[in-house]
Amino acid sequence: MKEEIPLTELSEPLDKVAMNELKVKYIYVNMEKEVIKTKEEVLNVPLPPKNIIKKEILLQKIQTNKEETESAHYVLSELLLFHLEMKSDDIPWFFEQKTYDNFMKRYPVVDDIEVLESMVVFHPYNTLYVVYLEKEKLKSIMKKKDSKHRITKRVRIKIPKETRITRKSI
């Protein structure tokens, strides 16, 4: 049985390698800010030199994973990439960190995402997070669910005589 060696005790440098897969985690948050559901899938990353996930592929994945209920639907809130790209010399520093916010990149607009090389040991942790927020569906005030025929509603505006402009008054 092979014994595991802690990363901090490795003598030879760990090289950065291009990732061929990236984990994508879909997170669904309700109106009370509670995570109610998560989904996970693996996305293939194009090989170098262009290891970029195209905007079109991202939009397709985002659209296909949208959820909808009778009273609400989920809309894209955030797109976050957690990517550990560091040199092997930085590993001791990494384990001293209390937070890992500097490894999280926020994408305010859906755009191409470049997946840089990272050490093989960190590949399973590099993840793209897609966060959906629950929004209430808007209901039309003009439609009635139980009605069998269409009802046309007319709006009439009555202007007082004093404010009307006629040829006589000009």
Describe the 3D structure:
The chain is mainly β and 170 residues long. The chain has helices at 55-64, 91-96, and strands at 16-17, 21-29, 35-44, 52-53, 72-82, 104-107, 113-114, 118-119, 127-136. The chain has one domain: Ubiquitin-like (UB roll), CATH 3.10.20. The chain contains two helices and nine strands. A five-stranded mixed beta sheet has the order 3-2-9-5-6, with no helix packed on it. It has a two-stranded antiparallel ribbon with strand order 1-8. A two-stranded antiparallel ribbon has the order 4-7. The longest helix has 10 residues, at 55-64. 11% of the residues are buried.
Concise overview:
The chain is mainly beta. The protein is built from 2 helices and 9 strands.
Main structural class: mainly beta
* Global geometry: elongated
> What about the largest sheet?
5 strands, mixed
What share of residues are in beta strands?
25-35%
Judging by the overall fold, what is the CATH architecture?
A: Roll
Distance linking N and C termini: 102 Å
Tell me the name of the CATH class: Alpha Beta
User: Helical percent range?
Assistant: under 10%
- Can you tell me the residue ranges where pLDDT is under 50 for at least 5 consecutive residues? none
Give the H and E element order.
Answer: EEEEHEHEEEE
Rounded to the nearest angstrom, the radius of gyration is 27 Å
What's the number of helices? 2
- What is the tally of beta strands? 9
The tally of domains stands at 1
Strand order of the largest sheet: 3-2-9-5-6
According to CATH, the fold-level topology is Ubiquitin-like (UB roll)
Please tell me the overall pLDDT. 81
